[in-house]
Amino acid sequence: xxxxxxxxxxxxxxxxxxxxxxxxxxxxxxxxxxxxxxxxxxxxxxxxxxxxxxxxxxxxxxxxxxxxxxxxxxxxxxxxxxxxxxxxxxxxxxxxxxxxxxxxxxxxxxxxxxxxxxxxxxxxxxxxxxxxxxxxxxxxxxxxxxxxxxxxxxxxxxxxxxxxxxxxxxxxxxxxxxxxxxxxxxxxxxxxxxxxxxxxxxxxxxxxxxxxxxxxxxxxxxxxxxxxxxxxxxxxxxxxxxxxxxxxxxxxxxxxxxxxxxxxxxxxxxxxxxxxxxxxxxxxxxxxxxxxxxxxxxxxxxxxxxxxxxxxxxxxxxxxxxxxxxxxxxxxxxxxxxxxxxxxxxxxxxxxxxxxxxxxxxxxxxxxxxxxxxxxxxxxxxxxxxxxxxxxxxxxxxxxxxxxxxxxx
Length: 409
Fold this sequence. Notes:
Layout: H1 6-13, H2 17-34, E1 40-51, E2 61-77, E3 82-87, E4 93-96, H3 109-122, E5 130-136, H4 146-162, H5 169-183, H6 191-198, E6 201-205, E7 212-215, E8 225-231, H7 240-256, H8 267-271, H9 280-304, H10 308-326, H11 339-354, E9 358-361, E10 369-375, H12 379-390, E11 395-398, E12 406-408
Parallel strand pairs: 3-5
Antiparallel strand pairs: 1-2, 1-12, 2-5, 2-6, 3-4, 6-7, 8-10, 8-11, 9-10
Helix pairs in contact: 3-5, 4-5, 4-6, 5-6, 7-9, 9-10
């Protein structure tokens, strides 16, 4: 069974040895499991939010990127009405496209794929049966969207096999969002899915119902930096209330000024009407929103100029704003639990000695993950240093890759 070419693998992963071994193992597993002599191979990355913390839900701007960790798949049409998927480390499941009502909604990959299938059918797109083996090194529960990565892999297969590659990435994203909203009962936006499907760094605007995006030419490695994610070990499962307070308070400020979301009003209007907003934290979070949008636009300009001093400065400013104004570093309900604060403090001690580099909260906040931009020559020392506090299994060096959810030949 022929795997993707070395040229293709090098263009996606920047190397061929490890990626070739992954796809060879996947191909052998696929042939053994489903008996196909040929397969089509796909990849779908995880994602990182580089700058634009908690702006999407109020119609703001985000600069996000696909990362070098990904979900890969080997697939073939099976000539039936049944989708069969076996993911490494999980049990195989089947979905009869003509009998989705037999599948129970709720958590689980089966429900997620059923939701994608339902969206595809409702939107009038084509779909059929296929067999697929998948394998992922996208970290679960670490803020890099392992579920969206898998969703976009499934959409890449459906698009290539049954829709002649004609579906836009916005349709990929909407299918994933629909599956999470309607089948997982999770209030998911579109940022994760867009970043995973489009690939590379992208500028996203969420002001309109359909997100607008454009690609940005940029990677940390070209500036001499590594991008490292640290999972601090505290999960998000019990933090729904504090997460929901952020969009709610931003919208509270917007409504006091005559809008629905903060994208409907201006910073000047906010500054001249503070007396109309009785919640001080809502005001501070609104400050963060407007200033964060400005930073995202400046980040896009700095990336175009390859101005890495400015890029790092803006990421640093964004992290400080999340800490001081957005206030999503720890919860007021449990101030003794401050894993994010601790990870940031430890990282800053290291980076100060290194003489350059920045760190910030990554994603939703309150618990979970930070991101650090570390000089390449200090990457190994930083990984060892942070591993001493959080465990090597929770420190993940990665980078931005240029390719999203696509077929690999």
